[in-house]
Amino acid sequence: MDRWPLTLRGTGALALGVVCFILAHEFVVPELIYVSVLLLVVVAASVVTLSVIRRSESVHRSFVPDVATVGQEVSVRAQVQIRSPLPVAQGRWREALPPGMTGEVAGTFPATASGVRLGARAIDLLYPLTPTQRGIHPVGPLTVVSTDPFGFARRRSTVGDVSLLTVAPQVVELGALTDLPGEAGGSMHSTTNQLGQGADNLIPRHYVPGDSMRRIHWRASAHRDELMVRQEEQETTPEAVVVLDRGSTRWADEALRAPGQDPGFEIAVTACVSVAARLVREGYRVTVIDLDGVELAEPIEGADASGVDRLVTAFASLTAQRRVGDVIPLVRLFAGVQTGPLVLITGRFDEMDADALAALPHHSSLPVLLTTAPIHDAADRAEATGWRVAPIPPGTDLAAVWIASVDRGGRRVAH
């Protein structure tokens, strides 16, 4: 029926015209001939006006917000510019949506007056969308079914092209790190813990010629029986590292094809950006890397909310990588290096991985291991070496897992 050019009213008029023509000859009623011809001519004229007389149309879409996150409602405004030499009756419109998008994307297209007098007319179509999958999704094209002024004929037209909507991973609000005071915690913790400590924050060193006498630390000098001077402690920004293992051997094949296809990889991506956002708010300078040490985004300075936004947007199109998930490069990367929190997020995790990672917890103030698919007793073996381990299968409450993972005892979450 989509290819049939007549509306229900037009089909009825056509049928009535044919019936009148037949009855006029059957019962010899000349008046029915006039009625039949009139109906058929009007129907034919309606089809011709829609088919021959062309109109120009274009569409411009805008999204609020322009970068969405999974599960966040997006307001779409489709502004249709239309110019037609004839008025167009009320019709219907519908947007084409890809998988991973839901919404009320159909409605009534308003009637338009003749463009000869009014020029191009803008029609605003407003509707909500809710993305259910991460990725860069095409919205459109817009399809408009319009009719002639009599409502006898209809024409289906595709207006404009598609618009791309970026859907980033959801950022889950995770709890604060309350168990890492001083230098073990972020700069937020360090600042709070040092307030009011006065001279105790100063490090005495040996006096050298040229030092001001006003900087002499008399208490330390008396204790050591030699001149000591005050030297302010050089504060550095504490660092944290978040590792997202993208090796294809850790995930389902769908994780390689497109964003949003593998539920396990999706919760890992969500955990990655959520943990990074939490650590940035704690005041850490956060580096997000792959298992082989390659940076997945620019390092984010502590309290840099815009840096978190850039990370989340960059992860909209992130997929797994076709390679073996080998943990040895990560172990070598931290050999002889100390860091703050080290959060490793991976998929399939077995006993060999746990043994290979045994040395890493000693290089971190907070070693956390999140795995979507621990195998056999791999989680227990990793926990025995110092990791704070938690499984995060699809559907996990990440906020609860995080709290249980970072508390002082590093208790496991029960599932």
Task: Summarize this entry quickly.
The chain is of the alpha/beta class. It is 30% helix and 28% strand. It has a five-stranded parallel β-sheet with strand order 15-14-16-17-18, with helices on both faces.
Provide keyphrases for this structure.
4-stranded antiparallel beta sheet; 30% helix; 28% strand; 5-stranded parallel beta sheet; 415 residues; alpha/beta; disordered C terminus
What does this structure look like?
This protein has 415 residues and is an alpha/beta fold. The chain has four domains: 8-52; 56-167, Immunoglobulin-like; 188-232, no CATH class; 239-406, Rossmann fold. It is 30% helix and 28% strand. The strands form five sheets. Strands 15-14-16-17-18 form a five-stranded parallel sheet, sandwiched between helices. The chain has a four-stranded antiparallel sheet with strand order 1-3-7-5. The protein has a four-stranded antiparallel sheet with strand order 6-4-9-10. α1 (8-27) packs antiparallel against α2 (30-52). The longest helix has 23 residues, at 30-52. Residues 190-201 and 408-415 have low confidence and may be disordered.
Topology record:
Elements: H1 8-27, H2 30-52, E1 56-64, E2 67-69, E3 74-83, E4 89-95, E5 101-103, E6 106-109, H3 115-118, E7 121-131, E8 135-139, E9 142-147, E10 154-159, E11 163-168, H4 187-194, E12 202-206, H5 218-224, E13 228-232, E14 239-244, H6 254-257, H7 263-281, E15 285-289, H8 305-314, H9 328-333, E16 339-349, H10 351-356, E17 364-374, H11 378-384, E18 388-391, H12 398-406
Parallel strand pairs: 2-11, 14-15, 14-16, 16-17, 17-18
Antiparallel strand pairs: 1-3, 3-7, 4-6, 4-9, 5-7, 8-11, 9-10, 12-13
Helix pairs in contact: 1-2, 7-8
